[in-house]
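To the wet lab folks,

You asked to see what we're planning to order before we commit. Fair enough. Below is the target structure as C-alpha cells, and below that is the sequence we designed to fit it. If anything looks off to you, flag it before the synthesis order goes out.
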C-alpha cells in the first residue's frame, strides 16, 4: 500500500507507487506518493511526477483524472523530446528492437525532423489548453547536430513554449540537466490558469469526443454497438459522472500506431467501454470509465499493484502544494 522509496545514482529520493502504462491505463504515479514528496520538500521545494508514454495520453490523464481527484494543481509541464523520436514522427523508418538503427536517425536530416516537430508542437498546444506553462527538454545524444537542436528549439519557442533547453543527463548526470531544471523553476513563476478539459458530469460520449477532438485533433468518434450498450448500462447504474481513461496507442495521435504525420485527419473508433477502480485512491467508490479505441490487452487497475513506467517520449509535471 505504501510507496517504495528509491534513489537516483546521485542520491535524489524517488517514490515509486502505482503508475500502470498510459496506453492501457492511467500512466501516472499515485497521489499518495506525490503528497508525501510535497510534504518532504516543503513549501519552497519541487516535486516532479512522470506521466507515462506520449503526452496525448499520459499528460491528458494526469490533468483530467489525477488532478481532478487530488485537487493538486501543476505549476509547469516539462515536455521531453529527442531528435530521433521526432524524426520517426516525421515519417522516418520504423524502429525494431534488436535491429540496427536506420542511418537517418544517426545523420543530420533537417527536413524529416521539421516534419516531426509538428508532433511536438501539438503536445505543446495541448498542454497550453490546460493553462500551464511548458518547458521543452531536448534530450541530446551524440549523433544530434547543432542544426537539429536549433530546429527543435525554434519550433518549440514558435509554438509558445516558455523555454526549450538542451539536457545531457544521460551522459553527464545531474549536471547535464541543471539548465533544464533552472528553466522549469522559472516557468513555475510564470502566470498559470489551470483548467480541466471537460465537465465530469457531461455525457460519457461527449467526454470521449472532447478528448478525441481537443487532444488527438480527430474529426470525431464512432461508437461500436458493444461500447454503446456498455455506456448505456453504466449510465443506468449511475456511473456517468466519471473521468474518462482512453486506451490508445502511444505511438500516434490517432488509434493507428503506424500513422506518424500528426496533422492527418482521423476518426477514433470506440470499441468497448468498461469501469475500473481508481488507482489514485484506496476508496472503492472512486472509479473511472475506460474507453478502448482498439482491441487492446489491458491490465486491471488494482491500486495496490506496482507497475514500472518507461517513457522515452513523455511529459513530466512539477507542482507545488499550496498547503503542504
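Sequence we intend to order:
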Amino acid at each position: 500500500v505504501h510507496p517504495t522509496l528509491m534513489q537516483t545514482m546521485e542520491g535524489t529520493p524517488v517514490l515509486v507507487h502505482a503508475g500502470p502504462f498510459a496506453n492501457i491505463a492511467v500512466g501516472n504515479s499515485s497521489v499518495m506518493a506525490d503528497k508525501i514528496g510535497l510534504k518532504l520538500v516543503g513549501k519552497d521545494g519541487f516535486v516532479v511526477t512522470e506521466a507515462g508514454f506520449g503526452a496525448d495520453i499520459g499528460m491528458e490523464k494526469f490533468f483530467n483524472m489525477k488532478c481532478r481527484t487530488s485537487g493538486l494543481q501543476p505549476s509547469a509541464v516539462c515536455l521531453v523530446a529527442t531528435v530521433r523520436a521526432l524524426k520517426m514522427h516525421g515519417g522516418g523508418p520504423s524502429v525494431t528492437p534488436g535491429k540496427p538503427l536506420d542511418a537517418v536517425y544517426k545523420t543530420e536530416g533537417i527536413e524529416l525532423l521539421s516534419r516531426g516537430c509538428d508532433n511536438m508542437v501539438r503536445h505543446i498546444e495541448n498542454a497550453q489548453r490546460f493553462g500551464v506553462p511548458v518547458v521543452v527538454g531536448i534530450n541530446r545524444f551524440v549523433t544530434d547536430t547543432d542544426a537539429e537542436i536549433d530546429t527543435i528549439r525554434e519550433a518549440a519557442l514558435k509554438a509558445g513554449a516558455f523555454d526549450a533547453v538542451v539536457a545531457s543527463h544521460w551522459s553527464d548526470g545531474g549536471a547535464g540537466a541543471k539548465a533544464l531544471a533552472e528553466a522549469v523553476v522559472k516557468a513555475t513563476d510564470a502566470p498559470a490558469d489551470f483548467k480541466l478539459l471537460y465537465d465530469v458530469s457531461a455525457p460519457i460520449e461527449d467526454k470521449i469526443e472532447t478528448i478525441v477532438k481537443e487532444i488527438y485533433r480527430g474529426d470525431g468518434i464512432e461508437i461500436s454497438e458493444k461500447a454503446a450498450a456498455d455506456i448505456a448500462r453504466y449510465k443506468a447504474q449511475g456511473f456517468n459522472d466519471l473521468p474518462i481513461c482512453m486506451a490508445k496507442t502511444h505511438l500516434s495521435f490517432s488509434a493507428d500506431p503506424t500513422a506518424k504525420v500528426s496533422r492527418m485527419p482521423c476518426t477514433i473508433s470506440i470499441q468497448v467501454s468498461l469501469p475500473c477502480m481508481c488507482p489514485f485512491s484506496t476508496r472503492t467508490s472512486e472509479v473511472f470509465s475506460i474507453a478502448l479505441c482498439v482491441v487492446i490487452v489491458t491490465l486491471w487497475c488494482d491500486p495496490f499493484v506496482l507497475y514500472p513506467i518507461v517513457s522515452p517520449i513523455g511529459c513530466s509535471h512539477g507542482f507545488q502544494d499550496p498547503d503542504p
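Structural context that might help your review: Confidence is low (pLDDT under 50) at residues 275-287, 294-324. Residues 138 and 199 are 34 Å apart (CA to CA).

Thanks,
Computational group
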